[in-house]
Write a structure and sequence with these properties.
The chain is an alpha/beta fold. It has 2 domains: 133 residues, Up-down Bundle (Four Helix Bundle (Hemerythrin (Met), subunit A)); 205 residues, Rossmann fold (3-Layer(aba) Sandwich). The chain contains 11 helices and 16 strands. The strands form 4 sheets. The protein has a 7-stranded mixed β-sheet with strand order 6-5-4-7-10-15-16, with helices on both faces. It has a 4-stranded mixed β-sheet with strand order 11-8-9-14, covered by helices on one side. The protein has a 3-stranded antiparallel β-sheet with strand order 1-2-3, with helices on one face. A hairpin with a 2-residue loop joins strand 12 and strand 13. Helix 2 runs antiparallel to helix 5. It is globular. The relative contact order is 0.12. The mean pLDDT is 97. The structure holds the ligand CSC[C@H]1O[C@H](OP(=O)(O)O)[C@H](O)[C@@H]1O.
Length: 355
């Protein structure tokens, strides 16, 4: 059973510290929005849908804290929005973070006439819904996406778009799980994904834990395996998809997409509709997070580069739509003409609840 990286039990949000995997499986307890914001910022929890879910629980904790104070409604809503902004400021690229917080703020406004404790209880239930819906969405995405994979083949994936990056089951890895559950013989090649090592530390751990055949390679080996004819398809997740189908994802995704096209290998993106940002015409406006240079110069406490060396550490890149063979969502698959097809998929009825 694929892991759920975020649990909500007895009013406590429990998250596995993904910075310590695979060496240590440590679950940390969170009871307030400030601590959850720090967990998102420091990547205790990471992955576009997962940080949206974590932020939703953070907003629920903020509501509970405000509901215990004797505040006028307008002031309570104002402070709630401020605390949601603090959560929104944690990481700029994954649009799921902002999608989840906007959903919480809409409910907060719509239910502001309720007694404060009932208001906060409704927001806690909404956060739990966002969490529970995500796994259902991933399973539906998996069903749509697995049809694109052959009965037998090797699929390369970059970063971790698995259960660890979501509310469970995964997006890209959810497609792989669904294909295997459909009886297909899929083995996975996971590249290490420097500098945060999501592939080596997280995807390899997650798939091995679930008994799925996975081979770890260095990032610079993907082209060689493609040249040898050992990769049949590539599938990755996404952090933000613009209206024309440009895809922001972990740094290195663009390089893999170019290699895939050069070798005639299909390059698939799996993402829930909460990752699609129709407000952006193309990927040029997607904010790209730059992270701590120490992620590049160190591996744990081991220094990998001379002190004082200049470092550039963008955490994401943008793959142009022309390199994307298909975009798999929970309500269907878009191919080519993404501007039209993504708009059509976004207009379909919710799969569950609000999404
Ligand atoms: C299922 S979305 C996962 C997506 O998020 C990752 O970024 P990060 O680990 O920095 O949060 C990466 O881009 C994955 O593809």
């Amino acid at each position: 059973m694929a892991i759920k990286p975020i649990l909500f039990e007895d009013g406590i949000c429990r998250m596995i510290d993904q910075r310590l995997l695979p060496a240590e499986e440590l679950w940390r307890d969170y009871r307030d929005d400030g601590a959850i914001a720090e967990a998102i910022r420091t990547m205790v929890v990471r992955g576009a849908p997962a940080i949206g879910i974590a932020a939703a629980y953070g907003a629920a904790f903020a509501a509970a804290a405000l509901a215990s104070q004797s505040l006028p409604v307008a002031e309570r809503l104002h402070q709630f929005r401020q605390r949601c902004q603090h959560l929104a400021a944690t990481r700029p690229t994954a649009v799921n973070l902002f999608w989840a917080l906007a959903r919480m703020e809409r409910l907060a406004e719509a239910t502001s006439a309720l007694a404060p404790l009932d208001w906060a209880a409704g927001l806690r239930q909404e956060a739990c819904r966002i969490d529970a819906e995500d796994e259902l969405i991933n399973r539906a995405m998996g069903r749509h996406g697995q049809a694109l994979l052959s009965q037998q083949g090797t699929v390369l994936t970059h970063c971790n778009a698995g259960a660890l990056a979501t509310g469970g089951y995964g997006t890209a890895l959810g497609v792989i799980r669904a294909a295997i559950e459909a009886g297909k013989q899929i083995d996975v090649v996971a590249d290490e994904t420097r500098p945060f090592w999501q592939g080596a530390r997280l995807t390899a751990w997650e798939l091995q834990r679930d008994g799925i055949d996975v081979t770890l390679i260095c990032d610079n080996m993907a082209g060689y395996l493609m040249q040898q004819g050992r990769i049949d398809a590539v599938i990755v997740g996404a952090d933000r998809i613009s209206a024309n189908g440009d895809v922001a994802n972990k740094i290195g995704t663009y390089s893999v997409a170019v290699l895939a096209q050069a070798h005639g290998i299909p390059f698939y993106v799996a993402a829930p509709r909460s990752t699609i940002d129709l407000s952006l015409a193309d990927g040029s406006a997607i904010p790209i997070e730059e992270r701590d240079p120490r992620e590049v110069t160190h591996c744990g406490n081991q220094q990998l580069a001379p002190a004082g060396v200049a470092v550039y550490n963008p955490a994401f890149d943008v793959t142009p739509a022309r390199l994307v063979s298909a975009i798999i969502t929970e309500v269907g698959v878009a191919r080519a003409d993404y501007r039209t097809q993504l708009a059509e998929l976004m207009a379909r009825p919710p799969l569950c609840g609000h999404v």
